[in-house]
Design the sequence.
């Protein structure tokens, strides 16, 4: 989150309670007249939230276990006018979207420890103007890009690029969950601002479901521009800012139940992105699958509740047994 005071923007990392949305802690990161944190992504293997300040070209690293923060500069793009606008952690690797004059050019990989450039994939899908969001789908190994009414997928294992078109515009945020892509949309109907959460099959682009939120607004300062998935409650979580009030939105993808909770009063607060985490400090790093073979595993999930391979390494995994019990472990290579 950023706050504006005396012509300076101050950036903070705020920890919120899963249930109530109450602020549990707030940690100062850095400040600058044009400071702007626009994205955040959690890396279970390092227990870090990685943030990107596009204006400063600074990569921030926030340790969720001990509430410490460090930062480093990414190498500036070779061409002037280009900048990195969003980051995503994919299987422990750090990727950033590169933009030039409002057109998305490529996705670049960086060393998450040093910030050094690793590689670049230049997008081949045409007309990538109007960037909105960027996320990673672990089940398919794909980085997912939302640009205007296009979804562009880049497989980090095979290097292949595929895409599909959405039926309309006005989309703002995406979250992949169990090979479905949840997308938020904002429209004006009879003078009221209406939000919709749509879901698509990530493999085909086919529409699966569409839920119109029951709460409408007469004016909106900022729509659902950030969204994450909270696996412990099966909820999509985001924010809506209206009439200088920032509210926390929750939407259960199983029951379609929704709620809005007050977070902050503006107008001097600006939210960058939201991310769900489970710190490693709550787990025993010595546990492994080899020690629990006496119980039969039914499914394996990551910390957001997405199904993953039992062979996933270097991250927190949640084991579901056939007797209905669950266990969290951190499985090393």
Sequence:
């Amino acid at each position: 989150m950023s706050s504006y005071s005396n012509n300076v923007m101050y950036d903070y990392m705020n920890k919120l309670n899963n249930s109530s949305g109450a602020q549990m802690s707030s940690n100062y990161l850095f400040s600058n007249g044009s400071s702007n944190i626009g994205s955040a992504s959690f890396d279970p293997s390092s227990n870090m939230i990685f943030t990107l300040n596009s204006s400063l070209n600074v990569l921030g690293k926030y340790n969720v276990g001990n509430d410490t923060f460090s930062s480093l500069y990414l190498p500036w793009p070779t061409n002037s006018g280009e900048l990195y606008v969003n980051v995503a952690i994919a299987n422990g690797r750090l990727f950033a979207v590169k933009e030039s004059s409002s057109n998305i050019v490529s996705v670049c990989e960086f060393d998450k420890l040093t910030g050094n450039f690793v590689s670049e994939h230049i997008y081949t899908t045409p007309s990538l103007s109007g960037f909105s969001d960027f996320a990673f789908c672990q089940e398919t190994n794909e980085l997912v890009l939302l640009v205007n009414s296009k979804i562009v997928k880049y497989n980090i294992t095979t290097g292949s690029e595929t895409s599909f078109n959405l039926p309309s515009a006005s989309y703002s945020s995406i979250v992949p969950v169990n090979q479905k892509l949840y997308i938020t949309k904002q429209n004006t109907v009879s003078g009221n601002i209406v939000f919709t959460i749509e879901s698509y099959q990530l493999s085909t682009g086919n529409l699966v479901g569409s839920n119109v939120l029951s709460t409408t607004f007469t004016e909106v300062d900022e729509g659902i521009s950030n969204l994450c998935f909270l696996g412990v409650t099966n909820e999509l979580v985001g924010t809506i800012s209206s009439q200088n009030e920032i509210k926390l939105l929750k939407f259960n993808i199983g029951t379609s139940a929704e709620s809005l909770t007050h977070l902050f009063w503006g107008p001097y607060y600006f939210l960058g992105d939201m991310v769900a985490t489970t710190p490693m400090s709550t787990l025993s790093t010595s546990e492994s699958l080899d020690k629990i073979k006496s119980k039969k595993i039914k499914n394996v999930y990551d910390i957001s509740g997405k199904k993953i391979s039992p062979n996933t390494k270097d991250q927190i995994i949640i084991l579901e047994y056939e007797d209905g019990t669950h266990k969290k472990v951190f499985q090393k290579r």
